[in-house]
Design goal:
Layout (H helix, E strand, L loop, with lengths): L3 E7 L1 H4 L6 H13 L5 E7 L3 H14 L4 E5 L10 H8 L2 E2 L1 H12 L12 E4 L2 E6 L3 H11 L3 H7 L21
Parallel strand pairs: 1-2, 1-3, 3-6
Antiparallel strand pairs: 4-5, 5-6
Helix pairs in contact: 2-6, 3-4, 5-6
Length: 176
């Protein structure tokens, strides 16, 4: 079975074709740059609707078999920002350190980082990570947490992800 990774851009406007899907494409480009493990991309753009987001997360995890799903957008305090609610609905275990580190990282750039509700969690053998919706913030946040992602996927029984160490070094504790 090939390694599959999901990218889910959550945006009413991108889903309606009102503007281009830059956040999702930026996220996919980072994954291609950082990972040397060949993978198939499971890619969708959906509106800010809890049921639609939850259904797509379940499909990508349980049907498509993605070991990692990264979402972009819908993590703020606005009424239509419901990505964390959809994520919490489908995960079995929350991984709060991801959101904590992403907010701490974003605070170096903007004081409004405290408004972010990004989270992460595990569903079966899938790690789901919520990212913000702006390409610059996606890079900053994913860069901060990505060193821990391959090892997390190892621990939950997923495939081994190798990185291009010249641009992204994954951390794995030495065994022994």
């Amino acid at each position: 079975m090939s390694t599959r990774i999901g990218v889910l851009n959550i945006s009413d406007r991108a889903a309606a074709g009102i503007y281009s899907d830059e956040p999702g494409q930026a996220c996919a480009a980072l994954l291609r740059e950082w990972l040397t493990t060949p993978f198939e991309l499971e890619y969708r753009v959906v509106p800010d609707e809890v049921d639609v987001i939850s259904s797509e997360l379940i499909r990508q995890a349980d049907v498509a078999g993605c070991c990692l799903i990264v979402t972009t957008g819908g993590t703020g305090p606005a009424p239509r920002d419901v990505t964390p609610e959809a994520t919490l609905r489908v995960i079995e275990r929350e991984m709060p350190g991801f959101g904590e580190l992403m907010r701490a990282t974003s605070l170096k750039y903007v004081p409004t980082a405290i408004l972010s509700r990004q989270t992460a969690g595990i569903r079966g053998r899938t790690l789901i990570v919520n990212l913000p919706g702006k390409p610059k913030s996606i890079r900053e946040n994913l860069e901060a947490v990505f060193p821990a992602i391959p090892y997390c996927i190892d621990l939950i029984g997923g495939p081994r992800l190798e990185t291009n160490e010249g641009v992204m070094k994954a951390f794995r504790p030495r065994s022994g």
